[in-house]
Write a structure and sequence with these properties.
The complex is a heterodimer of chains A (146) and B (111).
Chain A lengths: L1 H15 L10 H24 L15 H21 L4 H7 L3 H12 L6 H27 L1
Chain B lengths: L2 H26 L7 H23 L5 H8 L2 H12 L6 H18 L2
Helix pairs in contact in B: 1-2, 1-4, 3-5
Classes of the chains: A mainly alpha (146), B mainly alpha (111).
Chain lengths: 146, 111
């Protein structure tokens, strides 16, 4: 008797474990946001610390820069979107997709800080992109089916 | 790089990875008791902080272009840790992707 009543409950629970989410709650969007926020934070840290006098222990003098504080704000937001993504995505996949920071940070430094990208680094950027595509492709197909 | 500094790097990476495992533990399961999530998130932050301080201890001894490429071993390390401690599935495709990303990360950070 007990098994008869528990069966529908089990089905209902398994359906509930895959919730239909609004687009802005999509965990993969949050991994993307984490990558962008981390890159923006690092660029702000670099821009902020370049404009403050150096030589102090652990760059404490950089805390006077508004850009550094904006960077810290970005890192805190990055942590929250990362935690949201980890609710739904396995850590191996989330961590591997977050390797996109290896692409976004050099490109951001090139665009906004005027830093040069060597030929070897361009090759690295292309190879990281390839690796992320290898991992992301089956996920994209799964998303389409949903 | 001497064995001592390589060990420091391994400790730095392992702490950061342990921190990520704690984050996943916090978010991957329904909160059983009210303090479950904050406690694991706190443990994750502590792990990240320990990793960061070991990293800071290493930095003055090597140029960034030498130390950053070696730090890329955190990618395969994370894959092993997540499959051992969180029992996450490690497919051939994932192993291939992580291998390619690691090679790319070494090239991006080493130049």
């Amino acid at each position: 008797m007990r098994s008869l009543t528990s069966e529908p409950d089990r089905v209902l629970k398994s359906e509930q474990s895959v919730p239909k989410m609004a687009w802005y709650l999509n965990p993969y969007l949050h991994i993307g946001l984490n990558v962008i926020l981390t890159a923006v934070a690092n660029i702000l840290f670099k821009a902020g610390s370049d404009n403050t006098p150096g030589g102090s222990l652990l760059g404490v003098s950089s805390f006077g820069s508004p850009a550094v504080w904006m960077g810290i704000g970005c890192m805190i937001c990055a942590l929250f979107v990362w935690l949201h993504a980890l609710r739904f995505v396995p850590l191996i996949i989330a961590f591997s997709l977050a390797a996109a920071t290896q692409i976004v940070i050099p490109l951001g430094s090139w665009l906004f800080l005027g830093e040069q990208i060597s030929l070897v680094r361009w090759a690295g950027i292309v190879i990281v992109t390839l690796g992320i595509m290898i991992i992301a492709r089956p996920l994209a197909r799964l998303e389409e089916r949903l | 790089m001497t064995l001592f500094f390589f060990l420091l790097l391994l400790i730095s990476n392992s702490s950061a990875i342990a921190g990520q495992l704690c984050f996943k533990r916090a978010m991957g399961h329904p909160a059983l008791v009210p303090w479950h999530r904050p406690a694991w998130i706190g443990a994750g932050l502590v792990g990240g902080a320990i990793g960061f301080f070991f990293w800071l201890a290493l930095l003055p001894h090597f140029p960034l272009s030498k130390i950053f490429p070696i730090e890329a071993i955190d990618r395969p390390m994370m894959a092993v840790a997540a499959s051992v401690f969180l029992r996450e599935k490690l497919t051939t495709r994932l192993i291939l992707g992580i291998g390619v990303i690691t090679v790319g990360a070494v090239l991006v950070s080493g130049t």
